[in-house]
Amino acid sequence: MSRPQNSLPKRVIGLLITAMALAVITFWAWRPQTIEPTMARAAGVAPVTAQRVEPIIGAHYFGRQWPKNFIAGFRREHVAADFAGLRADGFNTVLLLVAWGDFQPVFEPCCSYDERAWQRLDFLLDAADRAGLGVVLRVGYGWSFHPDAGVITQRIHRLLNEREVRAAFFAFLDRISTVLRGRTTVRLSLLSWEDLWLHVIDPLARPDFERYLRTLPSDDSYRLRFAPGNALPSATSSDAALFNRYWDWLLMNELFRPATQRLQPLSFEARIDRDPLTVHDADGAPRSHWIGHESTYAPPGATLSTLYWAPFWGARNEGEQLDATQALRLFAVLLQQVRDSTGNLPLFIDQFNVIDNTLGFERNARLRADALQPFLAGAYCVMRANDVHGYAYWTTHNYAESPIYNPAFGYRLDGWSLQTHDGSDAEMRLQATPHGDFELQLQPGDALRQQIPARHGRLPRADDALADQVCVDVRAEAPGQLDIRAGGAVSLLRFDGSGEQQRCAPIAANPDGDTLTLELRALGTHATLRNVMLFDHVQDGGLYRFDGGDGPLLPALRELNQRFAQDNGESCAAAAD
């Protein structure tokens, strides 16, 4: 397939890189803005009326991979058992990420689709139906490792600044709408601010910005200062408030509103964090004002307001650890604030994080170890008191942040290069399984390589404080070993002849510039590879460990799921009497 062109000037790319480093978390509010009247609904899209339905008790599903490489990485043979496990734990809904770059990698010229991704989405939807699970789709997920998807920050920048790119994105949504037609198990689709983060207003977007200005009162100071031809506001200037108000307007009117003509029911995960604005008092002393995004809390036509939660919200975020009472109070404050800004729409927490060990946010407040279970026990009544219709736990299985594309050969050898020792066709080393997956037979002398680009995110590297590790799912009938390099010294990974197994070993990752090369060779005997991971961090959710064992939060989460399914809040009211 042809690859998307990079038409961004270096100045804009530099601004994007700078802007993406800015993330401030606190909770003071800013004034909401007016949303334009709702457009007429397109033919064929039925109106959605509020009704009392089964609550969403959801879990994200990443197919035993990193969310960023999920759609190409999951193995079909695992899905039925994984979905049955979700049901056994009390979940009634699975949340799936539908990445724009995975499904429509080329948007210019519009449009090229990867049919493999669409087939795999169909497989997951069918499997959820068989398992008795409802489905929530996060459409337009920002991350993609697809070789033809280009640089993700540039895709999003162009989507938010160019109408032609938005037309391609809407064609992607049209395709999703076709896939979902007649599928009653799909309960909700949602867009997320995280996938639509505006960092820079491009000059190409000036017509959109000027149209936004015309929605302001005629005597508004911003309308006068930013008349046609004047400079555009930025996220880091004294005009950050206007920048963020424009961003919110753009999300609601230029993206969400047209999306509702294609997908119903549709919600929007709003940014509940605040953005900084430095102001100066009369004496010249600087102080921080905080810009909220309340105008996105109640998207036009939505019947649910969607948000995320983790213990950092509302806390000092100075590395403190919270007890359950503190966390429950902050949780209740957040839910009430959102409801106050939505006209009391029911709430959906699409990312419910109780444990959060995300790299780079070590100073964020966390729950004390002895507060985790009491928090989950108390969260039920807090959610019921604030009309929370449901939640989706972010990660039920701890996952390795492995930047490998197509790690389990679901896309055959796409992204890999295999040099066979005898010069035979590399594709002949692939073996199809009864479930429709593939395995790769690596023979002694074969060399399997993948070049991992920096656009996949943070690359493992030996010169930081994190321990690099490689894990391989292998099937073998005789003992052997793999010779593995990641740009540094050789790491030997030994396996036995017991059949299917996962083996891990330390490794020294050494990227060469913006590329990390991974190479695997079989020594002594052939090995059948089923999955490869290279990582230095495991994201912890507290339910199931990386090795599949039970985590400390599993009993408490199962109890929460059961209460949410069976009790409409009567037990909370009785306890309060």
What is the strand and helix layout of this fold?
Elements: H1 10-20, E1 56-60, H2 70-73, H3 76-88, E2 93-99, H4 100-103, H5 115-131, E3 134-141, H6 152-161, H7 163-180, E4 186-192, H8 206-213, H9 221-225, H10 240-260, E5 266-269, E6 275-280, E7 286-291, E8 305-309, E9 321-322, H11 324-340, E10 347-352, E11 366-367, H12 372-385, E12 388-393, E13 399-400, E14 417-419, E15 430-432, E16 438-442, E17 447-453, E18 469-476, E19 480-485, E20 491-495, E21 499-506, E22 515-523, E23 527-535, E24 538-539, H13 554-566, H14 570-576
Helix pairs in contact: 3-5, 6-7, 11-12, 12-13
Q: Which keywords apply here?
A:
disordered N terminus, alpha/beta, 14 helices, Jelly Rolls, single chain, 3 domains, TIM Barrel, 24 strands
- Report strand order across the widest sheet: 5-4-3-2-1-12-10-8
Structural class: alpha/beta
Strand content: 15-25%
CATH architecture of the largest domain: Alpha-Beta Barrel
What is the overall shape? globular
Regions with pLDDT < 50 over 5+ consecutive residues? Answer: 1-51
Mean pLDDT: 91
Q: How is the CATH topology of the largest domain named?
A: TIM Barrel
Distance between the termini: 65 Å
For the record, the count of structural domains works out to 3
At the first level of CATH, the class of the largest domain is Alpha Beta
